Amino acid sequence: MLVSILDDLLNLVYPRTCAACGITLLRHEEVICSHCVMHLPKTFYHKDPKNPLFELFWGKIPVETVASFYFFNKGNKVQNMVHQLKYKDRPDIGVYLGKRYGAYLRNDELFSRIDCIIPVPLHDKKLFIRGYNQAEMFAQGLSFAMKIPYDATSFIRSEATETQTRKTKQERWENVKDKFKVIDESAIRNKHILLVDDVLTTGATLEACAHTLLALPGVKISIATIAAAHH
In this structure, how many other beta carbons lie within 10 angstroms of the beta carbon of residue 58? Predict the structure, then answer.
């Protein structure tokens, strides 16, 4: 009872709000309110082996499967949620969404043969500024729900890059190609890797990562993101 009263008092001073819509969370709610859990625009692409996201990688890299949890549109609640995850010191959003999406993916045949989860890495400079890698937080949640290990150390971003925002598709590719490096090949070889990131737009960053990983023998790549722009 005392803990409950203290929680209520703390919530009056520092209200817990929904990361998507901003309303005050109820005591039993975590990160996102029940309404948003039900109504945020899910893609259900993990159920469709021929979903539109595959087209982003046709003729570029072979991917086993690719899926995103939500649709991302400018100004929608998903964008608000991702913005808080990346820029408002809310790593808990990434972990929470990873756990929720992992609960869907762990029962799906297309994702049942994953050996390891690898987040798209941040360069050390950006990691120092932000304090965490938002893709790694998502990977942690997926790992917990899917009971698959994640690896955030064997694959790195070797050069700092400019933000991809406002760049054309070609400019995005030029910005990230050859900027990633495997530093522990034994951890990557002969594995089916689930490569994860926050938002899938043109696919340039994920393509650059996959290109480097696929250079090692026996590697297969699947992709999962928190959100994807409509395609």
Answer: 9
- pLDDT at 131 (0 to 100): 95
Dmax (CA) of the chain:
61
How many folded domains does the chain comprise?
Answer: 2
Give the C-alpha separation, 14 to 30, whole Å: 15
Closest CA to 221 of 230, 212, 183: 212
**What are the two backbone dihedrals, phi and then psi, of residue 181, each rounded to the nearest 5 degrees?**
-150, 140
Together in a domain, 12 and 109: no
- Same-domain status, 27 and 70: no
Same domain? For 86 and 4 the reply is no
Backbone angles phi, psi at 93, to 5 degrees: -65, -45
pLDDT for the residue 197: 98
Single out the residue of 94, 132, 73, 39 nearest to residue 224, CA to CA: 94
Please state, in angstroms and rounded to a whole number, the distance separating the CA atoms of residues 116 and 217.
15
Please state the rounded mean pLDDT for residues 138-156.
Answer: 97
Burial of 107 (0-12, 13-18, 19+ CB in 10 A): exposed
pLDDT at 182: 95
CA atoms within a 13 Å half-sphere pointing along the CA-CB vector of 202: 16
Q: Which domain holds residue 35?
A: 1-39
29 and 128 in a single domain? The answer is: no
pLDDT at position 6 is: 47
Identify any residues that bridge with 150 across adjacent strands, giving them in sequence order. Answer: 117
Q: What is the pTM of this model?
A: 0.88
Half-sphere CA count of 219, side-chain side, radius 13 A: 25
> Both 109 and 194 in a single domain?
yes
